[in-house]
User: What shape does this take?
Amino acid sequence: MKTTEDWSEELSWRCAACDRPLEMGQVTVTYMENSFTTDMPRCRQCGQVLVPEGLALGKMAEVEKILEDK
Amino acid sequence: MEQSDLKQWEQRCIQEEPPECTAACPLHVDARAFVRHVRDGRWREAWQTLARTMPLAGVLGRICDAPCQARCKRGEVGDAIRIGALERVCVAQAQENYRFTPLPSKGQRIAILGSGLSSLTAAWDLIRKSYGVTLYDAGDRPGAALQAQHAPILSGDSMTAELAWLEKWGVRFEAGAPLPTPSFFQQTVEEFDALYLGLDSIDSDQWPLTRNAEGSLQVDPQIFTTSNPKVFAGGLTSSTILRAAQGRWVATSMDRFLQKVSLTAGREKEGAFATRLFTSLAGVQPLRAVAMADAQSGYSAAEATAEAARCLNCQCLECVKVCPYLEAFGAYPRKYAREIYNNESIVMGTRTANTLINSCSLCGLCQAVCPEDFAMQDLCLQTRRSMVEKGKMPASAHEFALEDMAFSQSDDFFLVRHAPGQKQSSHLFFPGCQLCASSPGQAAALYDYLRTRLGSVGLALGCCGAPAHWAGRREESEKILNLWQKQWEEMGRPQFLLACSACHQMFRELRPQVPIQSVWETLAAVGLPESPNTSPSACLAIHDPCTTREALHLQTAARQVLAAAGIAAEELPLGQELTECCGFGGLMANANPSLAQEVTRRRAALSAHDYLTYCAMCRDRLAAVGKRALHLLDLIFPPAGESDPAARPRPGWSQRRENRARLKQMLLEKVWSEAPVAGANYAKINLMISAEVRKRLDERRILEEDLQQTIARAEAGGPRLRHPVTGRLRAAFRPRHVTFWVEYAPIKEGFEVFNAYCHRMEVKS
Ligand code: SF4
Ligand code: SF4
Ligand code: SF4
Ligand SMILES: [Zn+2]
Assistant: This one.
């Protein structure tokens, strides 16, 4: 799920529990028995992810539909 | 869907049947396409369309006697299109190269006697079927007699040009042959594998063949055989196009004879036939044919283009004209049936028709306008059911509506009671989930009024199961209907009084044993309450809900109520049995929100008047696109504190839930004097949301409850993100199949929500 979006806004958030800045890191995305990895902003210490709004409403919604139509 | 079902569906839609002009043409020239090309000045394409079917287009296109015109639909409103005259201009305008792909010779030789239209056509077709063709003519130039007969039209070199093509492809011309003599005949029969006698240009008196009582050759009128199996004959007709057609049919017969296959099988559609195509002439202005400035030379190019512009481009598309959904997918039901069938048959790969199947509002207008009764709603619903059974229904298509239905059936809303102090009910008022969601106060007022007029009227709050039915989830809709049936039996079989026409349709069609009445019928019978001056501020036009299409008595009752209230209203151009869906039916708005909105907009634009309807969902959807709209109850029980009820905005999804929950609590308290039941903990979280954010969240179908749950969990120690500059928090929660993200900040009164969004995929690091 590659996108060319600018996630500097998301990367300016911090994990509240660990009080650390978010960094890009590998996450696993799962839907309808399909699973793949991609990079998203997340807390390096506890693993908390931030799914960006643009991604959720754009690319992710598209892939959801493709998988549902399979 | 089985292959045989597909065939039946396809059979039913007649959009691909040929237009009258093509069906009337003995050669089935695609006159509709031809005329369109002429209209657009595409002479090359026009010529190609003609020549695809017509032999010797340069000749026949000039002299065809155009029997198509007698059946042209335009002729019913003005003059028929002068197709023959257009062909004449076309072949004079454009002369292209004929397409001819030589195939390996079949090695058999055919003699053609005579050079009339039937002979030339037979030669034209047989050389293409790879026979050796020799054409014998008595004169010294083939085609000369035909040319003379059609002077001056054929005087130029059009004949020479067509003969040159034949020669180029390998037809041998033998001039000066003694055609009428028996010896010549005998010799040709022996030398060739088959023989054609073109009776339109030669005399057959002396040939040794069986004759009928009048002395003319005995020829089979369908397959053109004579008493000698090797010999075929035809061309005896005054119509030029029929002579050519007979040449073509003879070529088919000779080919089949030489291939040793049936001469008769599958030839029913040769020649003119009746077409099933329906073309509406409604609204077509009568137009006379364009006159020719010079009748001798025929139409000029400009005149021809003007004449062609009168063509109706005959099609059916009755359903597509009235249904934005059918229009949006770019084709028509016959094609859609095929797409749906393919979608169902896919084992691996993408099912591209899922959105098509789920976007239909199941409103039935297509069937109401279709000359063949094609019911797209049946096709879509039946397919949805089979998708659900096979586990192939996309989860996102209907989930939101199904969860809303589950809410209506939960303790938050569901309620069944006899009237206070009663042990039995003669009637059971069933307002339906969406009236309560939209206008709880009117639902309560109507319940009070019904009790004052009818006495023992029980109350049933809940959903009829329509969303599950529309989603193709038969098991779930049956479960709900069974529940209502059981309630009905336990309450002593009262008559249901239904305020929603979708509920009415559900019970009417799926539980016919339960006696029902629409509250509009009830009100028309018992009369209206004394009400303050409720006359609306503007002219009204009636929007009938699509679920009343087959319940005209509901439409009548609603009009009676309106009349009893002393209010006049106009009919919409598409009303009553031809009414349109508001975009909610069939869960269209769930599966395809943007199309549903387009549907609502189109409906709203039909009249400048304020709309009056009697379905809460219809009213709210119209209001959501900015249409001023009233519910019939607005005139009977004017909403408190609303000076202009037609301008009342549509309550959002969260509001619709809250309204239902509050209505139940309010009725329990006021009507049955029961203490209210406490809600869940998170429901106590107070949220501040700006109108703009609220609107966005409603479009995204995110409920306040989702926000409350997410915040409650984050504030109880769940994971949160913090923005170092703004101090805002972000948290996510996945109660079931959807992850909600909420951006918020604590404030004195609770929390302010700045944004929220959701996705279905699960993300883990
Ligand atoms: S109305 Fe629609 S479904 Fe019916 S025949 Fe015409 S195009 Fe086909
Ligand atoms: S109106 Fe046009 S399409 Fe219809 S029958 Fe006449 S020529 Fe054919
Ligand atoms: S939306 Fe209504 S008119 Fe259109 S195809 Fe579906 S049932 Fe027919
Ligand atoms: Zn952390």
About this structure: The interface with chain B takes residues 12-17, 22, 25-32, 40, 42, 46-51, 53, 56-57, 60-61, 63-66, 68-70 of chain A (CB under 8 Å).
